[in-house]
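Tokens as discussed.
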């Protein structure tokens, strides 16, 4: 038995297992065209010093295979060579799933990046997480851009042809940061999105970190959380949709 155990150990040691990272978050730009009250990275935004494409290529070359690649920022779609970065990591590192958070302000750019990524890489899945931090004017207020709400909804609608083209390979999600400015209307926002937009999911995070406006935006009453949690939980279940958005 000891001899057989040693043989098993030697066999396991000799077996070549693929080296693969589960998730990599890649900061591609500090540029951002929103001015979010909830942002914990505001002091680093819109500053020089972003990695060049050549530097990012070197990063890719030093890494093993990757399952999930998150493009982070800033607003990732403002990176002029975002498509080239995606192509590099898919080809070199075998990325299977790409996750891109976006504010949806420049719909043509979002459309271009998504279409090119999925069109050129048939084995790739893409999760587009579109920020929606309140209903109507609340979203504009939290994001610091007048008309942001309408532009974001317009971006979502503009992506429907890609959803039909790529089907389950493209997942359209809404992402909401819960804060003092919007916690009272989380249900209103959720109902609107699921009734009127073709979403695959909606996700919620509690505001955190050192924000642009300090601690005031973190003042979400603890006694409001249980009801909010119960409502958010049901959004994981199939809900009715009229697809007007």
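Sequence:
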């Amino acid at each position: 038995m000891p001899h057989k155990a040693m043989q098993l150990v030697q066999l396991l040691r000799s077996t070549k297992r693929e080296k693969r990272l589960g998730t990599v978050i890649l900061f591609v730009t500090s540029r951002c065209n929103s001015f979010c009250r909830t942002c914990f990275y505001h002091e680093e935004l819109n500053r020089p010093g972003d990695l060049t494409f050549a530097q990012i290529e070197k990063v890719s070359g030093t890494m093993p295979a990757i399952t999930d690649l998150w493009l982070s920022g800033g607003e990732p779609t403002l990176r002029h060579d975002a498509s080239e970065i995606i192509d590099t990591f898919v080809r070199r590192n075998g990325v299977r799933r790409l996750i891109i958070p976006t504010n949806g302000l420049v719909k043509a750019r979002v459309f271009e990046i998504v279409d090119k990524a999925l069109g050129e890489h048939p084995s790739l899945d893409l999760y587009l997480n579109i920020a929606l931090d309140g209903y109507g004017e609340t979203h504009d207020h939290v994001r610091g851009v007048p008309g942001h709400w309408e532009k974001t909804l317009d971006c979502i609608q503009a992506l429907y042809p890609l959803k039909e083209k790529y089907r389950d390979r493209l997942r359209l999600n809404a992402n909401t940061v819960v804060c003092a400015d919007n916690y009272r209307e989380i249900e209103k926002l959720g109902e609107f999105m699921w009734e009127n937009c073709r979403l695959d999911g909606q996700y919620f995070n509690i505001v955190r970190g050192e924000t642009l406006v300090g601690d005031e935006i973190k003042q979400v009453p603890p006694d409001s959380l249980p009801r909010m949690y119960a409502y958010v939980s049901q959004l994981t279940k199939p809900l009715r949709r009229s697809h007007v958005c």
